[in-house]
Structure prediction request, 436 residues.
Amino acid sequence: MTPAPGPRSRRLWRRANRSLAGGVDSPVRSFRAVGGTPVFFARGRGAYLWDVDGRRYLDLVGSWGASILGNTPPAVREAITRAASEAVSFGAPSPREHELAEAIRAACPEIEQLRFVSSGTEAVMSAVRLARGATGRELVVKFAGGYHGHADGLLARAGSGVSTLALPDSAGVPPAVTALTRVLPYNDPEALARLLEREGERVAAVVVEPVAANMGLVPPRPGFLRAISTLVHRHGALVIADEVITGFRLRRGTVHASLGLDADLVTLGKVIGGGLPVGAYGGRRRLLRHLAPLGPVYQAGTLSGNPIAMAAGRATLDQLVPETYRRLERLGAALEEGLAAAAEQERLSPFTVQRVGSLLGTFFAAGPVIDAAGAERSDRRRYARYFHAALDGGVYLPPSALETTFVSAATTPGDLARAIPAVRAGMRAARGGGRR
Ligand SMILES: *Cc1c(COP(=O)(O)O)cnc(C)c1O
Prediction:
């Protein structure tokens, strides 16, 4: 096959750079992390995407997990069309909000009440504000490698030297803001215990991805999540389970409780919008009562609860039955086996695949990877060559080494089997060097 992207994508990339900062609306899309110029997409159906040059790709990104049913599922498309024929926006209450809220509550017993926003970023930012307002405390604790959206206080990484002090991860975030953030290693309950000993009475909340899915895919070690809720609650702080990726992705509902985490607040996004901009945060009524108009914690949104987005989310959740998750598990296992076998045949080493359900992390590093330090040992240059050779062979992987690979329910075992030659070519390129 000829290398991607084709001539139309290249032309669009020049045009995009004239109008859009860096040519994109979200940095990872620019291919900066893997080199080259991005592919521009024209159409998506089921497990596949077509670019503007007419090339077809097996989609293993799925809009970063939002497209759990695959691209443009008929039921979701119909729900969007029907909703749009009634109204595009109200900026006022409509029953579509309760329809999605009730579907979420029925699947998540810990969510007595919730509020819709328009992104995962807003959901986590608002949940942190609510936790601070409810506890009257200031500090927030996160884990290195956890991504919780781009709100200032959460764009922080562990500083060197004093391991827990947070440094801004972005220009424009004042150190005075991240001074209220603490960053700890994932899967290290002792580090959390030590921090809480020191300043537990100042901690409002600990934010955690119950399965870390923004540094490749890093499962929690046995006991880690249970230790978090025990320690945090002992110090009178709150636990925020960030399930923006994992919620409704690994099972119908949230996954933290089944992994031992007792959360006070939960954030959702991605899947619950079915590809439209939706986030949500929720929990016990006694906490949500602190939100305006009932309480003093302010949070608002012009397009929050948008009727088209609510309809897309509801139609998506309606399709997520137990068989969907059994299917996603089988597909995830098949892809994991395919990757491991291909790596073996190509004598690619070090190489590690980690998987939970339909989420996979591929590391060009020795495993198991348990934290950000381990994930960062993955060879990014190898990943970039792997990515580009797979792309040339018609497989769209995440364009960054530390992102998760997602399988959608529209995929068939045959689709995965047909993708393996491209994946093997990627591994060959990764091992051997090549055009990049
Ligand atoms: C994607 C993501 C976010 C941010 O969601 P956006 O909709 O991109 O703002 C927050 N937390 C986690 C765990 C995510 O994966």
In short: The chain has two domains: 7-68+321-432, 74-319. Residues 119-121, 124, 147-149, 209, 214, 242, 244-245, 269, 279 surround pyridoxal-5'-phosphate (CB under 6 Å).
